[in-house]
Amino acid sequence: MVNVNPNPSPNAQPGRLLLPVLLTVQFLVSLDMSVVNIALPDMGDDLGFAPDALLWVVNAYALAFGGLLMFGGRLADLIGRRTTLTWGFAVFGVASLAGGLALVPGQLIAARAVQGAG
Predict the structure, then answer these.
(1) Which 3-state string (H, E, C) describes the chain?
(2) pLDDT for the residue 36
(3) Domain definitions of the chain by residue range
(4) Which of 9, 73, 100, 109 is the most buried (most CB within 10 A)?
């Protein structure tokens, strides 16, 4: 006969940090879109964007994010959710740094696409 403790200790809740982590991820995605839209005119002036190319700063992120969303879910199934989320944060952070250091429009658009992939 197997003895199972029906009342696990309150400190042994495995999903206790899940909601705050997911809320943080969702907040970062929303914040990223909002901040870029506000800063878009100044970024365009500083980097010398053509008016029609300026939209690609937003579109590159949205297309990469939406296009790779299903792939990210499958990747999480294969290698684990925590590993996928950790790598996603790392890619997003490095791409954010690259976008902040961009000197020409193409670098910023590429960094935004990599951010969306992260």
Answers:
(1) CCCCCCCCCHHHCCCCCHHHHHHHHHHHHHHHHHHHHHHHHHHHHHHCCCCCCCHHHHHHHHHHHHHCHHHHHHHHHHHCHHHHHHHHHHHHHHHHHHHHCCCCHHHHHHHHHHHHHC
(2) 86
(3) 18-117
(4) 109
Q: What is each CA distance from 33 to 12, 60, 108, 117, in whole angstroms?
A: 36, 11, 14, 14
DSSP SS3 for 22 = helix
CA dist list (Å): 1 to 6, 7, 75, 92: 15, 18, 39, 50
pTM > 0.70: yes
Q: Left if phi > 0, otherwise alpha if psi is -120 to 50, otherwise beta: which for 48?
A: left
